[in-house]
Amino acid sequence: MVLTVTARRTVSHYGHRAWPLLLLDTGHAVAALRVAAGRAPVAWDAGGPLLAAAAGLPEARVWRRLWPRTEPEHPLAAVLLTPPGRRPPAAPLERWARQGPGEPPLPSGGPPGAPLPAVQAEAERVLTALTARTPPGPERWDHRPLPSVAAAPGEAAERRSATPPLPGVPAPDGLLTLLRTAEAAGGPDLRWCAAVGDPEPCLLRVTPGAPERRQGHPGALAGLAAGDARPALAAWAAGQAWVAGCGAVLLASGCPSGAAAGQVRRAHLRAGHAVQLAQSAAARLGLPSRPLGSWQRADLGSALGGPRRREWIIHGLALGAGRTERSTPRR
């Protein structure tokens, strides 16, 4: 399954914040598919030309010339779903790409040649740049299993984001479980920490090298910086004031200034993937949670102090300590 995004509707609501949100949402979708399928490998780094050909689509950079008055789809990732008892095919993206193009979608845009709004044109330019090349060598699939605390397939339809406020700091064991889940699902491009409120506001991370069997040991969480980062996080999270009063915020940072396009794309996709699985783990622990994807030049390096190093926050998960309520699944 090749996952693609179209920019227009998201841009109309979120403006310049649209393209990071599209990447994060794709990562969430990848995690949901993997939970539903049990154990499905992911192609995080396949280039746009290969993914587009595998989906029977033209490349985004020539889309409007070939299929005028239709909205370009930007392919970002692929998930390999194999029927039980069957071996996955070798190089499936290349195999699908040989099937040739599909039919164009129904027209959805304005008259041919009409200029795009500037913010939509910029979002499409960024999405095209992030997927422009196909990496050299054979296609690569990530076969690492899901974290053991990921939700069972039947639970995915029941998971809902909690409505703010989210008071109460989760217990250390719960924070440790969520941080470990996010680290396992996020990959090497991301760093994870948790900003907590009472009783001692600080940033926490997993103690480097802490073995898995010490999950319940207080030493498995280490202080990263003292002080309450939540007011700054509320301002950076598109001015969502309620964030300053939540119990804790799980944070993914990465993409330092000057990061290559492939790292930017992969980090956002995997951050969405990790937060989706951390939210499933939070639900199992009875912790209300809500993803935070709209970040405005959120420099975690400034919160950590010391030498100035821009470390951009990519994604977050706000947490409380109350029990979650099961809600009726939407149609």
Automatic annotation (TrEMBL):
<feature type="compositionally biased region" description="Pro residues">
    <location>
        <begin position="102"/>
        <end position="115"/>
    </location>
</feature>
<feature type="region of interest" description="Disordered">
    <location>
        <begin position="80"/>
        <end position="117"/>
    </location>
</feature>
<feature type="region of interest" description="Disordered">
    <location>
        <begin position="133"/>
        <end position="169"/>
    </location>
</feature>
<protein>
    <recommendedName>
        <fullName>Nitroreductase</fullName>
    </recommendedName>
</protein>
<dbReference type="InterPro" id="IPR000415">
    <property type="entry name" value="Nitroreductase-like"/>
</dbReference>
